[in-house]
Amino acid sequence: MSNPVRKFLKRFGSLNDGSSTRIWVPQVSILRPGILRSLKPLLVLCALLLSALLLPAQTKTLRIAAAADLQPVLPALIHNFEKSSGAKVQVSYASSATLATQILNGAPYDLFLAANLAFPQKVVAANLADESAPITYAQGSLVLWAHPGFFHHGLTMQSLASPTVRRIAVADPIHAPYGAAAMAAIQSLGLKAALQPKLVFAENIAQAAQFAQSGNADCALISKTLAIAKTMQQAGRFVAVPVSAYPPILQGAVILRNAPNKPAAQDFLHYLQSPAGRNLLASSGLVPPAR
Questions:
Q1: Residue 4 confidence (pLDDT)
Q2: Neighbouring residues of 49: CB distance < 8 A, sequence distance ≥ 6
């Protein structure tokens, strides 16, 4: 008889010279079939709990809240991460403000990848993050995107003042960091008066790109990550907005303090900051932050 069985019997039953075993169960006859039927749900529950405890932690789903500019960026990173780690990843894309609000209201994310530092800082301030400050994982770029041939004399910010340009898609500057960068560029280049009546505001940067791609806007001020996506490159072209025209777009991340799968969140964030991760980010329009 094995040691674990002996320990169990010593605590809950008895041993009779090793020849027979008698287990004591308080006021329950194991010969009564009705008792066995009544215990079946409890036994099933115990089996499920035991199975859950025996599952490896890395099989849990890693839930990421990601800014909309990361929509064309993360699939390749996630594919590599899942392949190497065995983890499963689920991503929710929205504006950084929307995701921050969800987290503040108790959404069960593990990792928040924002498009600026301000919104993850709100999560830190609410004592909901592991870090004392957001971790800057990349720096983004603002571009002007339009359909081919729309601008016959060159695509520039100044060309947006032309009467032929009627609608310019921009992400909501209150909720989307790239929208705030677009408005800063318009202001610093002295184009606010000319362009304000033409602006069409989208919920997030991905929707701003969709407005322009679908023809509901003549052009859009969007992230480079979206502009170099295959569908956008096939539909139009883009030029960089002068980086001196808007504040640096530093994109920050935080791991949630009560993350259901904190180990996987830590691993994924480390992967983003690794040479392999940064190379993939750079190929998608995000450069490593300046040190």
A1: 47
A2: none
Q: Where are the alpha helices (DSSP H) in 55-116?
A: 74-85, 96-104
Residues (pLDDT < 50) of the chain are 2, 4-33, 35-37, 39-41, 43-58
* Residue keyed to tokens 């997030």: 204
CA atoms within 13 A on the CB side of 13: 13
Separation CA 159–CA 44 (nearest Å): 69
Spatial neighbors of 146 by CB under 8 A, at least 6 apart, are 155, 212, 218, 219, 220, 236, 237, 238
Residue 17 CA, distance from chain mean position: 62
What are the respective helix, strand and coil percentages of the chain, to the nearest 5? 45, 20, 35
- C-alpha to C-alpha distances, 70 to 95, 204, 275, nearest whole angstrom: 10, 12, 18
- Three-state SS at 129: strand
What pLDDT is attached to residue 24? Answer: 36
pTM of the full predicted structure? Answer: 0.78
Residue type, 160: L
Residue 67 CA to residue 62 CA, distance in Å, equals 16
pLDDT at 245: 97
Alpha carbons 45 and 183: distance in angstroms, whole number: 56
Please name each of the domains of the chain with its CATH number: 58-139+249-283 (3.40.190.10), 141-245 (3.40.190.10)
Would you state the pLDDT for residue 291? Answer: 66
pLDDT at 149: 72
Report how far apart, in Å, the C-alpha atoms of 16 and of each of 2, 3, 30, 219, 272 are. 16, 16, 19, 87, 62
Q: Rounded to whole angstroms, how far apart are CA atoms 208 and 76?
A: 23
Q: How far apart are CA 37 and CA 47, in angstroms?
A: 16
Q: Give the pLDDT of residue 35.
A: 47
